[in-house]
Amino acid sequence: MSSVPSLALVGRASELRTVIDVIARPPAVVLVEGEAGIGKTRLVRAALGHVPGDRAVLLGYCHQIREPFPYGPVFEALRDVGGRLPEPGTLNPVTGALAGYLPELAGALPPAPPPLNDPRAERHRVFRAIRALLAAVGPAVLVIEDLHWADDGTRDLLRFLIDQPPAGLALVITYRREDHGATRASLGRAYRHHPDTTSVVVPLVPLDVTDVGNLAGALLNRSDLSSGFVARLHDRTAGIPFVVEEVVRSLRDPGEPEALDRAGVPLLLREAMAERMASLSAAAVRTVQVAAVLRVPAGEQLIAAAGGDSAGLGEALRAGVLHEDSRGRYGFRHALAEQAVYDAIPGPERRSAHERVVGALAAMDSPPLVQLAFHARQAGDIEAWLRHGSAAAHRAAALGDTALAIEVVEGMLDDPDLPEPERGPLALKLSKFAGSGLSHQRVVRLLRHVLRDDFLSPDARAEARLHLGLLLSNQAGDTVGGRPEIKAAVEELTDQPTLAARGLACLAMPAWGTESLAQHTEWMARAEKLVASADNPEVAAAVLANRASLQMAIGAPDAFAVADTLPIADTRMAVRREAARGYANLYDSLITLGLYPEAEKIAREGRRLAAETGAEYSAYIVDVSAIRMEWLTGRWAGLRERAIAMSELVADTPQIAVDVWLVLGMLALATGEWEEAARHFHAAGLDAPDSRYAPVVDAAAGGLIELHLARGALDEAVAEAERAVARLRRKGVWVWGAYLAPSAVNALAWAGRTEEAAALVAEYAAGVADKISPAAHAALESARGALASAERRHAEAAAHFARAREAYAVIPQPYAAARAGEGEARAMLAVGDPGAATAFADVAERYGELGATHDAARCRRVLRDIGVEFQLPRGRRGRAAALSPRGKATALSQRETEVARLVALGRTNREIADVLFLSTRTVESHVATVLRKLGVRSRTEVAPPA
Hints:
Elements: H1 13-23, E1 28-33, H2 40-48, E2 56-61, H3 72-78, H4 119-137, E3 140-145, H5 152-163, E4 169-175, E5 198-203, H6 209-220, H7 227-237, H8 241-250, H9 257-263, H10 270-278, H11 282-294, H12 300-305, H13 310-318, E6 323-324, E7 330-331, H14 335-344, H15 347-362, H16 369-378, H17 382-398, H18 402-414, H19 420-435, H20 441-452, H21 458-473, H22 479-492, H23 497-507, H24 517-532, H25 537-553, H26 559-563, H27 573-593, H28 596-613, H29 616-632, H30 639-649, H31 654-670, H32 674-686, H33 694-710, H34 714-731, H35 740-750, H36 754-768, H37 774-790, H38 794-810, H39 814-830, H40 836-850, H41 853-865, E8 879-882, E9 889-892, H42 894-904, H43 909-916, H44 920-934
Parallel strand pairs: 1-4, 1-5, 2-3, 3-4
Antiparallel strand pairs: 6-7, 8-9
Helix pairs in contact: 1-2, 6-7, 6-8, 7-9, 8-10, 10-14, 11-13, 11-14, 11-15, 15-16, 16-17, 17-18, 18-19, 19-20, 19-21, 20-21, 21-22, 22-23, 23-24, 23-25, 24-25, 25-27, 27-28, 27-29, 28-29, 29-30, 29-31, 30-31, 31-32, 31-33, 32-33, 33-34, 33-35, 34-35, 35-36, 35-37, 36-37, 37-38, 37-39, 38-39, ...
Organism: Sphaerisporangium album
Keywords: ATP-binding, Nucleotide-binding, TPR repeat
TPR repeats: 658-691
C-alpha cells in the first residue's frame, strides 16, 4: 500500500476562514454541522492550529452509548484547566460547587458551598460555577464534539453559556446534521444567541469532483490523476472526505479508474479497513475488534478484560488504526471506521466478543447498564438483555433522565426479536415513563398498535388503554380522544381497582371536559373509595394529588389542609413523583386564585420534587405557569421573549403551552396588536374551548371580549361573553371567571342588557362567596363597578372600582389594579370629581410603567379631551432600539417607539391612530420622524424595537 500523508484540509478554505475569524472575536459560538465523515473534526482541528498559545483549548466529547451523567462532556473538557487557574483564594466562591464533579481541581477550588434545597437552584449554581471557572481560565476555546449524542443537561448548560458567555470564551460545537431537522435543534428549540456574541453556523457538504481530485492528489502526492479516476473516486465515495481518505489508502496501484474497480472498495470503506487490518498481527486485530465491539472509547484495562491485550493495543495505535483521546481512552478516529471493522467480524465471533464485553462490564464496580443491555442483545442473550435494559431504564428514570429511560425501552420495543409476551409489559413500562416526561407521540402510536394486537390479556389491555388515555389527555393535549379511552379503561379495570382509581382521579380533574363540578366530585369519591382498600402507595399518592388539585382548583377552604398531606418526604421515588405532579397543579391553581406568596412556596417545592424524581412534565407545568404569574404580577420586561422561548420548548405538548399563548395574547392586547392578540387567544384554547384547559380558556375569553370592545365590535363581544359564561356556568367553578366576569358584565351592560348583567354579577358573587380566591373577590368588585357605571350609578361605581383597585394591589396584580383604577377615574369624571384628572394621570403612568401602551394612550386621550396637559415620563425617553435592517441603533422617544412597533407589524397610519388614540396627521408625522432617524426610506425596513 502506498504511503500517504494525513488527510489534507481540501475544499474548506471559506469555512476555515470563517471559524478562525469567529473564534478570534470572543464571546463567540460556532456550530459546525454535517453528516458523519464530512470533516467536522478535521475543520475544527485546523482552526485550532491558528489559536494563539495564550488561549486555553478545552476538548469534550459526547458518545453514542451514554450513561446518565449530565454535563459529562463539559466536565471532561474542564479537567485539564488546573494550570491556568489563578492562585487559590482568588476564584469566585461559587466555583466550589464543582469540587465533586472535578476532583482533579479540588485543591485549586474554593470550599464547596452548602447544598441547596431546590435541585433547580443547585443546577443553576453549577451552571454559574462553570461559567465562573471558564472566565477565570481566561481566553479559551471550548470544543464539544458530536452534540447529537449529548444528554439534555449538557444542551441546557451550553445554552446557558451562550446566553451568558464569559467575555473570552469561544464555544465550538460539532454535530451531525441528519440527527437534527433544523439548526436550532442541536441546542434545543429555545436556542437564541446573545446579541453581543458572534455566532455562526458552518454547514459542511460533500466535496465536489474538483475537490475530491485535489484531496486525492494531496494524499498521493500526485498531480497527474486522470479525470476518469477522479470521477470514479467521487462516485464511489459520494465526496465524503474521510471515505475518500480511506479508499485512497486502500489502493495498491492508484491513479487509474481500474484501480478502484480492482480494489472493490464500497462506499463506506469496508474493504479499505480490511486492507489496513490485514497488515496487523493477530493480537492487534483482536484488540481492534474488541474496540469496535465496545462502541465507545475505553481504557486499556477494559479492552484487555474484553479480549484485547496491551501489545496489540500499542501496535494498533502505531499503525493509526486506533487513536488515544485526551482522557487516555482508546477508540477509532471515526465511527465509520469502527463500523467497518465491526461488520467484518464473523457473526459467531461477534457474539462471543459481546459475551466477553458483558462479563468485563458486569465486573466493574458500577456497571454501565445501558452498555450491558446493548452488548447482551448483540450476544443473543435475550434474558440478560431484558434484565439489563429494564434496569437501565429504571436507573435513568430514578436519576431524572426520563428521556434516556424512554430511549432504552423504545429501542427494546423496536427489536424484531423481542418475545411477544414481553411486548405488552414493555409498552406499559414505556407509557409510565412517558407519563412524567414530554415525549409522547411515538408512545401513543405504540400503545395504539398494542391495543390492536390480540396478545394482551384483558387486564393488560385495560391498563394499556388507561395509559393511552392519560397520555392523550395530558401531554398530547387531545382530551377529546383521551377521556373516552380513560372512561372505557375504568369500566374494563374491574379486577384492578387501583388502576381504575387512577383513571377516575384523572377524570375528576375539573379543568378538563365538559362535565359539571358535581360529576367531577363523584368521580373523585369513587377513586378514593377504590384506593382506600388497596395497598398501592403510588396510586394512593396519585389519587391524593388529584384530590388536593381538585380542592385547590375550585378554591375550597380545606384545600391547603389536603395539600399538606401530600407525601413529599416519602422514600419511594414513584410516590414523590406523584407529589411533584400534585405540586405543579397546586401552583397553577394558586396563580389563578391570586394567592401568590403561597404559590411561590409551592413552586419551590414542586421544582425540587420534579428535579429529584425526573418528572419533566411536572417541571414544565411549573415553568409555563410561572410565565402567567409574571404577567399577572406585572413583571413584563422581557416577558414576551421569555414566553416565546418557552413556547418553543413545549411546542410538542400543547396542553402545557396554553399559558404561554394566553400571556402573549394579553401582552398584545395591552399594546394594541389586535390580530396578534386574537391569534394567541385562539391558540390558548378558544380554537376548541370544550377540549382545552378551562381556567386558561376562560381567561382567554375575557381577553377576547376586551379586544372586541376595544375595536368597537359590541355584538362580537356580547356573543363571546354569552358563550364563555355558558361554559363557566355549566362547569360551576366560578373562581375561574376572575378575568372573564368583569369583561362579560361590561359587554352585556353596555349592550343594554343590564338585567342579564346584574344576574351574572349575582350568580358570580354566589359562586365565589365561600372560596379562597383574592383574585375572584377583586374581580367581583370590578364587575359590580362595571354594572353600576352602565346603569349610571357613578358614585357607587367609583366605590366598587376603588375597592377592586385596592384588592388587586394587595394580591398584587398591577395591570388589573390599573384597569380598576381607570374605571374609578371614569366614574369620578362622570360625577364631576375634581380628582379625576389626577386619577387618570396616575393610571396612565402605571400603564406606561408596565408597557401597556394602548391602555396608557387611552387614558392620555381622556386627559387631552378634558384639557389636561400630560407629559410622557422623562425616564422612558431616549430608548435605543436596533430597528433597521442595517442594525442601526437609534434613540427614539417613547411615542416614536410605540409607533415604530406598530409600523413594523404592518399597521396603517389609520390603524396606528386608532390604537394610540392620535390623529392620523400626528401619526404621519411620527412615522416620518422614525424613518428619518433610522435612515430608511420604506416602512417595510422598520423592524420591531428591541
